[in-house]
Each structure stands twice: as C-alpha cells, then as structure tokens.
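Quick sanity check, Digalactosyldiacylglycerol synthase 1, chloroplastic:
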Amino acid sequence: MARFGVDTRPAAAAPGSSSGSGAGGGAAPGEGALSFLSRSIREDLRLIRARAEELETFLNAPVEEPELFARLRRAYTSSASSGQTRLDLSAIRKAFEVEGWKGPRGAARWRWEEEAEEWEPVRKVKARLKELERTRQGQSASDMLQKVKLSLKSMTFAPEGSEEVPPLDLGELLAYFLKQSGPLFDQLGIKRDVCDKLVESLCSKRKDHPAYSFLSTSEPSSFRNDSVGDELDLRIASVIQSTGHNYEGGFWNDGPKCDITDKRHVAIVTTASLPWMTGTAVNPLFRAAYLSKSSKQSVTLVVPWLCKSDQELVYPNSMTFNSPEEQETYMRNWLEERVGFKTDFKISFYPGKFQKERRSIIPAGDTSQFIPSKEADIAILEEPEHLNWYHHGKRWTDKFNHVVGVVHTNYLEYIKREKNGAIQAFFVKHINNMVARAYCNKVLRLSGATQDLPKSMICNVHGVNPKFLEVGERIAAQSESGQQSFSKGAYFLGKMVWAKGYRELIDLFAKHKSDLEGFKLDIYGNGEDSNEVQSAAKKLNLNLNFHKGRDHADDSLHGYKVFINPSISDVLCTATAEALAMGKFVVCADHPSNDFFRSFPNCLTYKTSEDFVAKVKEAMTRDPQPLTAEQRYNLSWEAATQRFMEHSELDKVLNATATTSNSNNDSAPEHAVNVDRRMRKSISLPNMSDVVDGGLAFAHYVLTGNELFRLSTGAIPGTRTYDKQHSSDLRLPPPQVQNPIYGW
C-alpha cells in the first residue's frame, strides 16, 4: 500500500523508450534515470501532502462524544467545582446506568437494554462503586459522632472514665431555688430558719437517692459535709460540671481587681480614732498591730480625720491636732506603750464629720478612694453598716478581692430608745441588711446581741490590752504569796450616756436600795448625759459616787475587786474583758453580749434583780480565782487574731495564691489538681445571691446620690463629698475638682 508512503510499484516504461540504448532521438541512459527519479519524488511529495490534508480534515471534523464519557466528565467536574477532595462516587456510578452508548462515527455501536445482561466489566465497576459509596457513608457518620464526643469531652473537667452524673429532679430544683432565694427572704423580713427547714425537708427525702451516694464516693473527703445545704450545693455543682458549663460571671461583675501576685495588702477601715476612747477606735488599732506582725501581708489602718471644730466636740480634755501627722504620732505612741513592740503598719486618713444627734462620725465622700487601687486587695470594715449608710462611691466588693465586716454596735437597741424608735429601727434593720449583703463577702458579729445580718456568724475577734493581762498576772502572784490583792470594793466604768447601762444600774439600785444598804459603787465616766444621770441618782438618794472618766489601765483602778456592768445594749463590752484579764469579779446580765465570758469562773451572771443582789453579795464575800494560762490566752490579742483569721476565712484568702500555683505545677499530685478544679467550679456557679447583691448595691448607689434622700434619712448636709477644710487638712484636690459640676 502506498496510502501514507511512497508508491513502490515499478514505474511503466515511457512510450517510445527501450530498455536498451536507443538510436535516432532516444534519451541517453543517464538522462532517463534522473528524469525518472525526479518524477517519482515529485509524485511522492504530492501524495504525502494529500494524505496530510485528509488527516487534518478527519481530526478537525466534529465527532459526537460517547454518552458514557460525557457522564463521567460531568461527574468529575461537579466534584471539583464543589471543593470536594474526593470524587462523587454516586455520580460516577450513575454514569454507567444508561440505556445505551453510541460510539464514534463509522465505528461499531454498543447498546444495553434493561432486560439484557450487563457487560461483565461494567457490572463489576458498578458493584465496586456501590461498595465504596456504602463504606464512605458509614465512615462519615462514625467520624462525625467521634468528633462530637471529643468536643463534648474537651468542654468538661471530668476525668476520663468518670461515672455519669444523674440529672436533677423537680424536688432538687425547688430546694435549690428556695436556698438561693434567701437574700429575698432576708429583705422581706422572713426568718432564715423557715427557708432552711423547707430546704432540709426537700433534701432529706433525697438522702438515699443514687445521686447522693455517687456524690459521697466521687467527692474527696475534704469536700464532704453533713450539712444538707452543702450537699445540695455539691450536687448542683457536680451536675453543672458534668455538662461542661463554665460560668464566667454575671451582670454586676466589675472586671479585674488588684493583682495578688505580690505581697498581700490588708486595709482596716474604721469609724473612730484615738484619742476618742471608744471600741471602734481602740480595737481596730490593736488589730492592725497584730495583723502586721505577719510577713504575709502589709497593713494599712484607715481612720477618720475631723476638722478642729469637730475635734473639740469629740476628743477628751479639749485635745486637738493641727495635722494628720501629729495625730498619727499620738496614736503610735499610745499603742506601742501598751503592746510592747514596734508596730509596722501604715496609717491613712479619710474625711469625716461628727453628728451630734447620733454621737458618731459619718464619712464625707467615697471612703474607698483613699485606698490606692494597687493596694485594694483585702478590706476589713469595722462597723460596715455605719461606714456605708451614706456611702456613695465604689462598691467595696468590686474594688477589693475580699471584704470582711466586723459588727461592733447594736444600733437597733440604741434607736429603739429614741422617739419613734420602733419605726426607725424597722427601716435601719433593712438598710443594714442591704449594706451587709451588698458590700461584704463575710460578716463577723462579736456576739448574738447584734442584728442577724446576711453572710454573718458570731465570733469574738477582740482581745484585751496586754497591760491588763500583766496586771492579772501580778495580782495572781500576790495572792499566791499571801498578800492582799484587792483593797477596794466595786466600781463601774463606761461612757456616761443612758444607753450604756446607766438606766439599768439606777433602776436596780433604786429597787433594792434596802437590800444593798451599806454597799457603795464608784462610777467613772464622761458623756453627754452626765448631768442627767447624776441628777437621777441624787434624787433617788442612791449610794453611787461619780468620778471623771479614766483609762481602765489607770493604777487607781487596779485595787477594785468587783466590776459591775448591767448594760444590755453592748455587743461585747471591752471593759468587762479587761476586768476579767485583771483577775477581778465581773457581775453582768445574763445576755447574749456576755456569752463569751460565761466560761470564766470569775464571771457572775444574773437573770433577775434579786439574782443581781445575790451575785453582788457573793462577789464581795469571797476572792476571785486566778486565771489559768489557757484563760489568759483566750483573752489575748494573739488568740483574737487567730480566731479572726479562721472565721473571716482570711487565712484561706492569703494562701489562695500559693494553692493556685501548686495546682498549676506539673509536679503537684493529681488529686490536688482535681480538688482545686472542683472547688473553682463550685464557687463559680451562677448564684441568685450575686444578682440580689448587685441589684441592692446599685439601688443603694442611686439613692445615696440624691441629696434630698440623704437629708431625709438623717445625713449631715454636704457629706456626699468632702469640704474645703478637709481638702486643706488632708492636702486633697478641691471638691470642685474631685466632683466637678458641669453647666449642661
């Protein structure tokens, strides 16, 4: 064949030619060969060009695409355009499910009918595609389920392989709702015992529930508690923990607070200062001295500064100070003379004004602003109700990491003695509840004589001046050596106002004047009611001798054997503790304010006026017992500071940084890390108390910002901020700079 190549057939002899040499006009033999080759080459080239044109025409001619190839191409294109990393196997399988397929033009044609048997290779391909598609769908569902499980597992803190926590039922939800509604019940005047009994009743039925048995086995022993309320809290915490929920805070949160990576700071804020010899001036001063002995924290005592006009009304013997530095020197000298060591704490002053009607100092402006933000770590509010009645400023629990309130005074008892006292006491009771709940994390009541405030517990966190314990030791030594320890009879010492027990004292002596004939009582004190008290005693011709007020540590008072204190308005009488420390008898009322002193054998309590007479005669006829070492320690400030650290949870707060560091340490035991996580989870639960506290704080802030409301509730005019005199004395910015008034 010569279709695409050179024609190999032998060329025909040209006419008139011969194979041999011709004569007479024939081509020469050489010429004939060249001519033949030339013609052959030209012919071959012509044929090659013709075949090339034919091939080009064939290739460029439109050819119908086979249906199978078209379906496969579309399946591949759809997979690529959708961003899939795998081919759409179902589409490829469907490409083979066709009724027929046409081959290219001029080629054989293939066709499959539904009833006809499939071509074996195509059948196998279709079967394989179906198998691959089923495998892929199964793997996809399995992968998705596994991913969901891993995602949920990563959201929880539960250790791998932990048991499933049973869900809450209706009874538990109702009990938790009632427990969380405690703040609302407090504000409505409903006793807390009612709520506690309802919660206990609901939870006691669940005691044998598998959920609680699971809790008792899964929780470490340090987290187990016999209290129903605590078990309910742990139960709720475990359920929320099992869901992976992490409560990040509520509406009222105020962002980050003081950084506690460095040394801790404690600010003790009180309502009075020396030389005013009152409990809120003396006891916080001693607390600052003994807390500062520890190297764990630095301490700042924040006391009110009074302008000279107010100093003359408050401080004894017309004592005044020209500057805060001068008053600070006086306070340190007085303290160090009594504690016997060099104190290491800072004293800061805030503006205050004296209110004659209430005989108390009211803060002027926002007291919290006088503690620098970098030191706003732990706050101890001595008399938190008093400090915050008219507080219009930063919320203490927003600025500080931990706030402890110490209740010194039974304000309700004082207010009830005034005109319309019952109505005033009702409002003050609810205001005190609001203040304690909104501004404190923990409240310590010195005795049960105080108002039952939210977040509170009863604990005596006050000690006595070490000088009184020294006097007691000296008197005990004299008794052991046979010397006469006491040369005088009975006395009473206290600020001369009716509420300090003078009314009760005069009534007792007037009622049993004949029974107490020959019994003389010396009274030491100064106060606003001095003239009235002395006039009443003189009018009744009572055997009471009045003297000017003296420091209880004065040498002239050491010789008395019996201290009589009939007051029922005190919370925890400091003078009673000091008399016991000096080894004297104390005759006092059977009252919650004296519960701490009952354990001392020299404390003689009475319930009736007849019992009072009997206890006085008993004390006058025998000698008191010397204090044991344990009794002396319980009265000391070292013991009081230890009780304060424990019951205010200050020891836990101060150790919180170290605990957190240990839990983050890789070398820490696994159970310690789990305990820390569980604790953080339980205290981060959403709590209705937080919502109520924040709402009360906001309402209090709005009300105390209104001058009309302040004045109608008894505030001193102009105490929403400090005045120019305070600005000058304390070197503060002028009031108009601190609180500018804009013209729009």
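Posting the structure with no commentary besides this: The mean pLDDT is 77.
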